[in-house]
Amino acid sequence: MKIKVIMNSGKEYVIVEENYSVNDFKKTLYNDRPEGRELFNGFIYLDRAKKITINPTHISSIEVLQE
């Protein structure tokens, strides 16, 4: 699946992973707390090669791209 991540700055990243869904991606953006889910405010890797890091609080939108 290809997922485009658009940041508040306008920078765009495309994630290409097999057997990966939007829900899988969204799970990496949140912390589970006793009070509920909380958006993670720190750096996460966007790719398995660990070359791209972002802060999820600066994501503007995500889009699924057709292959």
The amount of helix comes to under 10%
Q: Note the beta-strand portion.
A: 35-45%
Shape: globular
Weakly predicted, low-confidence segments: none
Rg over CA atoms: 12 Å
Assembly state: single chain
Distance between the termini: 7 Å
Short key terms for the protein model shown above:
three-stranded antiparallel β-sheet, two-stranded antiparallel sheet, 45% strand, globular
Structure in words:
It is a single chain. This protein is mainly beta. Helices cover 9% and strands 45% of the residues. The protein is built from one helix and seven strands, in the order ββαβββββ. Strands 2-1-7 form a three-stranded antiparallel β-sheet, with no helix packed on it. The longest helix has 6 residues. It is globular and about 40 Å long. 3% of the residues are buried. The model has no long low-confidence stretch (mean pLDDT 92).
Topology of this protein?
Blueprint: E1 2-7, E2 12-16, H1 22-27, E3 30-33, E4 36-39, E5 44-45, E6 53-54, E7 59-65
Antiparallel strand pairs: 1-2, 1-7, 3-4, 5-6
